[in-house]
Design brief:
By secondary structure, the chain is α/β, with parallel strands linked by helices. Helices cover 43% and strands 11% of the residues.
């Protein structure tokens, strides 16, 4: 359209009347506060409707859209009109096309009006409203936060992690992570990840923080032994006492942080209560400190190893699990992905990595299966990576200390002997 107008202006430049040109330029410039020539106006990328009106004038000399009745003009244009010089002059152009009143073929008049003018204004207002709401919540959280002594506090700043370029993330997980970060509802920002060891649960949390440029904080739930440890401890200085808030409190109050609750299944059921109110209501009161309130856009991601075979695992509290509205289940890497990652991280020969990945997949396929020839546990990626780092120095002995010795050797058909046969089958024993 712009190309067509440029040609029309060039062709008719010498024949255009000065008074007609003044009317058109006045219409274009109204409400913008800037002076344009027709050429400059085209370079500013005007909206399609205005282009069509000017094109019609160049073709048939119709000046109707540009001639306003000054007596009917308000003394001051509404604010919306100031945002767009042609806002209140929307024209259906020339003869009325009745088919376009209610849509019909192509875009109807009403739809065109909404898309061109009303929708951008609405989106701008909605965006500003979201920003105001975020600032309001942040200020309210700061107002409720009343430490007994600011002097006793230790400076804390959660950092944005670096992107792990070797971590493999499926397109589905990438899109899910972006959706969680962009979601408006706080319900979507409490995520449970589950799966066997070395399936990528923990790494996905830090990867998401790195790619979304968000501060990251992790707390290992198995190390929290007392309910009060979630929030801080009493301290003393210069003869007076004060409450020292925990790094967990500082991370959740700062807003925009991704907080990883590592190994939630190892959290003792006797100290769950402090988290229940916080995750449900977004706030809880701590004696000696005041109101702890989750900052805006904070994301909680809990990790858990599935199965009671993992040491220190408790049966999770259903009330706590219900706080996590989103659940993501992880599975081990495929054979091809394992091979690629081992080579990239350790520099091991690709053939060795491929053989290890094959053995790992064979064991995983029979892990937990009832019957002869099954395994109680899989070979984890951590074990494979350790074997690859040791292999250049000690050869096949690396597979014994990193893989075989993790299995019981109780008899000729023990799990260890069966894994040894798999390694021998691919030439690694």
């Amino acid at each position: 359209m712009i190309g067509v107008l440029t040609k029309l202006i060039a062709a008719k430049k010498d024949s255009l009347r000065a008074e007609d040109m003044d009317k058109v330029l006045g219409w274009i410039q109204r409400g913008t506060g800037s002076a344009f020539s027709l050429e400059e106006w085209l370079e500013s990328k005007p909206n399609e409707m205005a282009l069509m009106v000017v094109a019609k004038w160049l073709q048939n000399g119709d000046l109707t859209p540009f001639e306003d009745d000054e007596d009917d003009e308000p003394e001051a244009e509404p604010e919306e009109a100031a945002m767009n010089g042609s806002y209140k002059r929307f024209s259906m152009g020339g003869e009325l096309d009745t088919k376009r009143l209610f849509g019909g073929e192509g875009v109807g008049y009403i739809e065109e009006l909404v898309n061109t003018y009303a929708e951008p204004i609405y989106n701008q207002i909605a965006s500003e409203r979201d920003g105001w709401e975020g600032e309001r919540r942040s200020m309210m959280a700061a107002a409720r936060r009343r430490p007994a002594s600011a002097e006793g506090e230790v400076a804390f700043e959660a950092e944005i992690p670096e992107v792990d370029k070797h971590f493999i993330v499926s397109p589905k997980l990438k899109q899910l992570g972006k959706s969680i970060c962009a979601a408006k509802s706080e319900r979507c920002k409490k995520v449970m990840t589950a799966g066997p060891p070395s399936s990528g649960k923990s790494q996905w949390c830090s990867w998401l923080a790195a790619t979304e440029k968000r501060p990251f904080f992790s707390i290992n739930c198995s190390t929290v032994r007392e309910p009060q440890q979630w929030f801080g401890k009493d301290g003393a200085k210069s003869g007076s006492t004060f409450w020292q808030p925990s790094e967990f409190v500082k991370a959740i109050e700062m807003g925009g942080c991704i907080v990883r609750l590592e190994e939630l299944n190892r959290l003792s059921p006797f100290i769950v209560n402090p988290l229940l109110e916080l995750l449900e209501d977004g706030r809880t009161r701590v004696e000696g400190y005041g109101m702890v309130e989750i900052g805006p856009d904070t994301i909680f991601i809990a990790t858990a190893n599935v199965g009671m075979q993992y040491q220190g695992t408790y049966k999770s509290c259903e009330s706590l699990l219900s706080r996590f509205s989103v659940k993501v289940e992880f599975t081990p890497l495929t054979e091809a992905q394992t091979t690629k990652t081992l080579v990239a991280r350790t520099g091991v020969d690709v053939e060795v990595a491929k053989k290890l990945a094959t053995v790992s997949q064979q064991v995983y396929a029979k892990t937990g299966v009832v019957g002869t020839g099954s395994y109680d546990k899989p070979i984890t990626y951590r074990q494979l990576e350790a074997a690859c780092y040791l292999y250049p120095a000690i050869g096949n002995e690396a597979f014994r200390v990193s893989l075989l010795n993790h299995y019981e050797s109780d008899g000729a058909d023990s799990e260890r002997s069966r894994v040894l046969k798999l390694l021998a089958g691919v030439g690694l024993a």
